[in-house]
Design a protein that fits this description.
heterodimer; A: 211 residues; mainly beta; Gyrase A, domain 2; 6-stranded mixed beta sheet; 3 helices; B: 972 residues; alpha+beta; Ubiquitin-like (UB roll); 22% helix
Chain lengths: 211, 972
Amino acid sequence: MKDIQRVSPVVFKATPLKTEKRNNWEVVMEYSGEGEGPYLVDLSHKPRFDFQDADLAARKPFGIRIPEIYGGSALENGVLANRMNRTQVSLYCIDGQDNTVIPDEPGFTDVTESTMFVALIGKEVFSICEKLTALDFLDPQRKTPFLFQGPFSHVPCQMVTLSRDGDSSGIVLTCSRGYGRDMIHAVINAGEEFNLKPAGENRFTKWIKSL
Amino acid sequence: MNRFNHLPTLKIDTTQKISFIHKRKKIYGVKGDTIATALFSNGIRIFGRSLKYHRPRGLYSLDGESSNTLMEVDGIPNVRCENTLLKEGMVIKEQNVKGSAENDILGFLDKLDWMMPAGFYYTVMHKPAKLWPIAMKQIRKAAGLGEISPEFKMPGKFDEIFLNTDVCVIGGGPAGMMAAVSAAKKGLRVILMESRPWLGGCFEFRSKEHQNRLSLHERAAQLSKEVESLKNIRVFTHASVVGTYNNNLVTGFQIGKEKDAFDERYIELRAKSVVVATGCTERPLIFDNNERPGVMQAGCALRLAKTYGQLPGKKAVFSIGHDFGLETALELHDLGLSIACIADIRDDGQDPALLKKIADKNILLLKGWVAVKAHGRKVVKQVSLSTIDGSVTRKFSCDLLVASAGMTPVTGPITVAQGKLKYDNHTGFFLPDAMPEKMHAAGRIIGLDDPLSIEASGKLAGLKAAFDCENGSIQEIGQAKKDLENLPGPVRGTKLVTAPVKGRKSFICFDEDATLKNIKQAIAKGFDVPELIKRFTATGLGPGQGGIPGHNLPLYVAKYQALPDISIKPTNVRPPLVPTLISTYAGAGHQMLKITPMDEMQRKDGGVFRNIGVWQRARYFSNDFSCKNEIENVRTNVGMLDGSTLGKFRIFGPDAVKALQRVYVSDMSKVKEGRIKYSAMCTDDGCVIDDGVVVKQGENDFYFTTSTARAGQTAEWIRYHTRYDGWNFAIVNLTDAMGVINISGPNARKVLQKVLDIDLSNEAFGFSEYKEFKIQDTVPVKAMRLGFMGELSYELHVPSSYMKSVWLMIKEAGREFNIQNFGVEAQNVLRMEKCHIILGSESEQRTNLLDVGLGFLWDRNKPEAKTVGAVALRQAEKDQTRLKLVGFKMENNTRAPRDGSLIVDTKVRGYVCTARDSFSLKEAVGMALVEAPLSKIGTRLEIFEDECGNNRIYGMVTQMPFYDPDGKRMKM
């Protein structure tokens, strides 16, 4: 029997220092030479769900409130809920041990496998973003966290800005899994001048807890 | 040349030498030099030769408005040397010369101008017609600017940046800086773009008093500091705007500094409001030999000294039409330039303070005089001046002629945004009349010349821009307006365009060697408006983007035709306002393609990949592109294919079936659990756009596939066609979530049985059946028995992250059977032998469901579903004029025709969709869409291939499918 392993669409040219086996994923907790930031963290193993309902106001997926405004996001109990449109919400389980299972109620689809999922953390994050997208992450009219659905390096993405506060700035980004290789290449390339480095999940956990 | 090193305005560091190669000789410039100023400091006056007449050309404006100083730099042709900073080791070559710029063999063409009147290439050498190709080659050899090899690879790093801001200020002069500051002080985000490498504009190099003994350059430094102190102003220097568009989209490019991570980058920015403070350039004065090296504009002469620390000549004559010319003469005189004479076009109106200083320094000033001719074969040696009416003439020896008719506003950013200009009699400018929405002009562009007025107008524009961003008050704007009104307004400008000359050698456009005589010739031929004259004479169509002829052309045309002022119209300006490299527009050029979860493994197995739509797919697994081995292995053994690019969707909810009924032609209420339903989707015209399978996963819960090409549009397609129904269903795109492994061939079952715990016998898992199970209690699989390749076949849909593990398991299990990969091309041949169609290959935009023989899928008995395309299909049913899909075999076992070849007789009757030499059938077969009368079995098809001439090949319509017509193999 072959050992069954899950493979992330994200591949970094960096040496993992610490890894953790989780639900058949080999999760890298720390890379060598992570530097001083900004950081790029692979979160593709984090459970993600699509939730659709004609009456979203009446639903509380994972017991959390759904933002009323399209493009609004809310982070509660380690779950990031992003209001996509009238009937649809994306849910990212970003904190915890990744063992969230699909709730046994209508409307949920597990889309963990559909997308690659990364976090960009550090004060230069938006300088990197503006090299790849025309979306205005620094629009003062928008309050964090908020969702963008649009092109990032020409590819349709969901991007949630969680913080715009100096060193704590950061976004999480998902796009079709198939674009994983080229998206990572584009982000690393855009971040090169800012010393962007791949980092393990520990960096992300520390950051998300600090928000 | 000794360089000044004591001036506070200098932008060079004379202590840091930079070596470069010019004409194979190592010479030196200093840090801060442009290529042009470094060459000038080495005594080089002739930079290149002109396009048509090969006339010597030299430094003229320092802002790159003409092709005079285009040179080849490090192999890159047409580099604007006036504004390209010098770098260590650069190799500079002259271009458009036969010999050298100094001694150009083709220089004799200057004497043959009589042979080349305006538009000569439209009118001569066309009769006899045979002559033109020969003449054209010779003209192209003699003319043109730089050359580039098709193999040339652009060196350097190019990038792009997409910005958002409240206010964008174009122009970093005093007005632009004031606008930026006043908007920024309102708390708005401001972006300031300046084409020069530093801020300051027309203040930055001048010693004239601003107020209270503060010089203009000191004031520029003050403003610059204030701008830099405001964190909400982002400054982009050495950044030129190339276009402005609707909704204040501004595009441009920036040249990188030494420490920047890019050499050049494309800028695209969205602003809520735009301030245009681009100032003025000098309007060239037109006289005989007005482009001779040694003739230059006042700003060029002054900046050479004040910014780059070198005198533009030893002895100068000035022929100017504005106070800035007088100011320049005085400043350069103080720096050691000998001035033989100043000819001022104006009889009066000069600043008395300047006149007094000129008199105090005993400089000869001739009012109402103008230069009529620059003498000297290659460079200026003498100048003829005359009175404006040409009645009196005097000659002066000199090596520098500073010539400038007046100022002209840089209105490009306004006009490309569809702003309108109107000729103003007082200033002689084309002034902004109707500004585009949320765009404001400030500074010299609106005719102001007084430093305080310029700044006040900038402040006013900044407040107006803030108001656009809903941040400011009418009262503030009113006050700023009043302040401006209390300051000096626009100055009177000179109207003179040309000296009293005949114009044979008086150039209105340097880039295209267009003279006043050419303009007259064009008018004589009936081209009476500047837009037509521009095209007929090519005036303003060169790489300087009309920078030199600019407003002179319409002004001259109006004057020559004695038109009233009101009808003077400038010619259209279009982006790019400033030329730059194509590489800059390409930017970082990230290739964004999708890969499947098996990409890496297939590459290791020798996959030859091709870009197919948004995906990279393994098309072949050897260099034999006929794929003989891959095909035969599937027919006789077992092969595996990565089918992950298929579109995959989940649709669920109480009204999911209704939605499926709407878009699929079949009756989708009949989809049974455990069974696969194959169906197709059509457009409203009945044209078939997609096909795939649907399976039921639970109550009101379906999983379906689409073609690879349609995956991106399917969710929206379904939502669009149900938008008014208010149905309750949800659709989720799972294309990337699930990988697909297709195992095909007579041994497929044996291989798969080694991996799976379920019974795979034909009885337990028959053809067209669907199962869900787990591999090793871990990996969830959706399995389908299909037969696209015409063989026993299983399609496993596996979560993408598990694909590698499952792929390796199957590979290992198949080792004893020698399982092999097969790619997209082998799949294409295998399915073609079975006459299974691929939409897009066997169809095009106009092909309907019935044309391709898929009419059997259409269920006519569900009118309540309002199936998309059903109405059109009913109409098309009886239409005998449509193309039909047929199978054909080639006559005499000849080779297969190329895909897309035409079916002809006396007319085109159809086309070949896919045809290949079939290894399974040992003959060439294919499918074609042909007119109905040709679709009968046994019809001979005449096939016309590209460039085949009269050598046609022939096929015969035959029964489909070609391979295993009873379908036994896929049901085994």
